[in-house]
Amino acid sequence: MITLSKRMERVASMVTEGSRVADIGTDHGYVPISLVERGKVSKAIAMDVRKGPLSKAMEHIKESGLEEKIQTRLSDGMEQLKEGEVDSVIIAGMGGELIVKILRNASHILPSIKELILQPQSEIYKVREELHRLGFCIEKESMLLDEGKYYTVIKAIKGQEHYENQWEYLYGKKLLLEKNEILHQWLLKEYRVNEALCKKLEGVSSEAGMARKEELLHKRSMLKGGLACYDNERIG
């Protein structure tokens, strides 16, 4: 049986039982193998734009005896995915910009997809904004700390949704509403870093310094908005 990292275990946990799943950027194919081994999904397609990782995924699928249930497919994003083949799409471990690009280039397939499980490594707010633009709503978010790094996993389904506040896109409205403790830790950490940087710029009057101050003050305002969602939070 494949053992997943804490991060990828959280990704796998978001997939609806009984789904047919496509793992975009599958790397070594561990997530689809694990999902099929547990009987959580009936069929999977492991997809990657690189031949090397896809070859490794094929080896691992054969070693697990799952060639009948997991296909491998060389594909740039969801390009080689056909309408109606899968219900669930996983895109994990990529930058937010790349995930947005993959989603934008998948107009041929998105109408037939029931759920998206996304784990952006950066610029998560761009992914949330793009999901709303594409007619998906965020059903669930999860945040975890794995080997000293913070990760966010998003599950999106069909539906219309829009957030009123910028910090809800930045930090995740679902996480804020549930007063997620990991997010709380991260917000406090970011606020302290912001304060320290602002102090370093006291007395700086250069154009670049002033621009940096404005940037930091805007971020502080967003952090305050996020922290205000937690009870008894006292930020000056």
Describe the structure.
- The chain is α/β, with parallel strands linked by helices.
- Helix content is 42%, strand content 22%.
- The chain has nine helices and seven strands, in the order αβαβαββαβαββαααα.
- Strands 3-2-1-4-5-7-6 form a seven-stranded mixed β-sheet, with helices on both faces.
- β1, α2 and β2 form a beta-alpha-beta unit.
- α1 crosses α2, α4 packs parallel to α5 and α8 packs antiparallel against α9.
- The longest helix is centred in the C-terminal third of the chain and has 21 residues.
Note the main attributes of this structure.
236 residues; alpha/beta; elongated
Topology of helices and strands:
Layout: H1 6-13, E1 19-24, H2 30-37, E2 41-48, H3 51-63, E3 70-74, E4 88-94, H4 96-104, E5 115-120, H5 124-133, E6 136-146, E7 149-158, H6 166-171, H7 173-177, H8 181-200, H9 207-227
Parallel strand pairs: 1-2, 1-4, 2-3, 4-5
Antiparallel strand pairs: 5-7, 6-7
Helix pairs in contact: 1-2, 4-5, 8-9
- Percent strand equals 15-25%
Q: Approximately how much helix is present in the residues?
A: 40-55%
Sheet of most strands: 7 strands, mixed
Number of helices: 9
Distance between the termini: 51 Å
> Which sequence of SSEs, written as H and E, runs from N to C?
HEHEHEEHEHEEHHHH
Mean pLDDT: 94
Unreliably modeled segments: none
Give a short synopsis of this structure.
This protein has helices at 6-13, 30-37, 51-63, 96-104, 124-133, 166-171, 173-177, 181-200, 207-227; strands at residues 19-24, 41-48, 70-74, 88-94, 115-120, 136-146, 149-158. The chain is α/β, with parallel strands linked by helices and 236 residues long. Helix 1 (6-13) crosses helix 2 (30-37) and helix 8 runs antiparallel to helix 9.
